[in-house]
Amino acid sequence: GDQTAYDAAQEVLSVMGGNIVHCGGVGTGQGVKICNNMMLAIAMIGTSETMNLGVKLGIEPKLLAGVLNTSSGRSWSSDTYNPCPGVMEGVPASRGYTGGFGTALMAKDLGLAMNAASDAKAAVPLGSLANQ
């Protein structure tokens, strides 16, 4: 909505989360959300494939994650929510992949992103591959 409506709702919104951002007109926030989640899906797939390759090459996962997380490959998927078992405590990979952002929810958001990309005539080949 408009800035005035956002300002009026700020007190209520601040209870819902710590990072409240006015993104523009109606629907723009939804666009930001699906863009963010498409980027997360792509980064998580890249992190998963990277960690798998490293393990297959005989590299200890915690060592690989440590190097990645202090190098240009660092991302939220690698340093905060690493998908490789044994790298981090308190993440789904350390709990048999339970209790995380469900794949059904990610699939839904990727579907929304693909619809939006089609409507906007935006090429998103990596998003499309992630959606497969």
Structure description:
- The protein is an all-alpha fold and 132 residues long.
- It has 6 helices and no strands.
- The protein has helices spanning 3-16, 28-56, 61-68, 76-79, 103-120, 125-131.
- The longest helix is centred in the first third of the chain and has 29 residues, at 28-56.
- The protein is globular.
- The protein starts with a helix and ends with a helix.
- 17% of the residues are buried.
- The mean pLDDT is 93.
Q: How would you concisely characterize the structure shown here?
A:
The protein has helices at residues 3-16, 28-56, 61-68, 76-79, 103-120, 125-131.
Distance between the termini: 33 Å
Low-confidence stretches: none
- Helix segment tally: 6
What is the helix content? 55-70%
Q: What value does the Rg take, in angstroms? A: 18 Å
Count of DSSP E strands?
A: 0
The general outline is globular
Biggest sheet architecture = none
| Overall pLDDT | 93
Strand content: under 5%
Walk me through the topology:
Layout: H1 3-16, H2 28-56, H3 61-68, H4 76-79, H5 103-120, H6 125-131
Helix pairs in contact: 2-5, 5-6
Question: What labels would you give this structure?
Answer:
about 130 residues, mainly alpha, about 0% strand, globular
